[in-house]
Write a structure and sequence with these properties.
globular; 3 helices; alpha/beta; Transcription Regulator spoIIAA; seven-stranded mixed sheet
């Protein structure tokens, strides 16, 4: 991961050129804000897939470690979501629930919302428009 100029994190992934050692910028970006003492927002834009899953996991783990009681992932600008990212989101939501916290997901995409409903993740994750 490479810090960028806005204190966000830009993650790097390897593509077909990995044999040449040429990294390419993955298409997800993560930033974190504390909106209240008990609420943390992780802002995500781009694609959440296998290439960005580790960076997503790190961002959520860091937010959980802060001891927030509400963890909100603002994914309104996410354009793609795969099963790897779904697993990361679900694991974080379950950990938050186990300690009495709340995991919220802001989802603006109708197609991503449909995936969340079809996989019944909306039973664990509080979906916000």
């Amino acid at each position: 991961m490479v810090p960028d100029a806005t204190d966000g994190v830009r993650c790097l992934a390897m593509d077909d050129a990995s044999s040449r050692g040429a990294p390419r910028a993955a298409s997800a970006r993560f930033t974190r804000d504390t909106v209240e003492e008990t609420a943390t927002v992780v802002n995500v834009d781009g694609e959440l897939d296998i290439n960005s899953a580790d960076a997503l996991r790190e961002a959520l783990d860091a937010a959980e470690a802060d001891g927030c009681s509400v963890l909100r992932v603002d994914a309104a600008s996410v354009t793609f979501l795969d099963s790897t990212a779904l697993g990361v989101i679900l694991a974080s939501a379950q950990r938050m629930a186990e300690r009495g916290g709340r995991f919220e997901l802001v989802c603006g995409s109708p197609s991503i919302r449909r995936i969340l409903d079809m996989t019944m993740i909306s039973r664990t994750v509080h979906l916000l428009p």
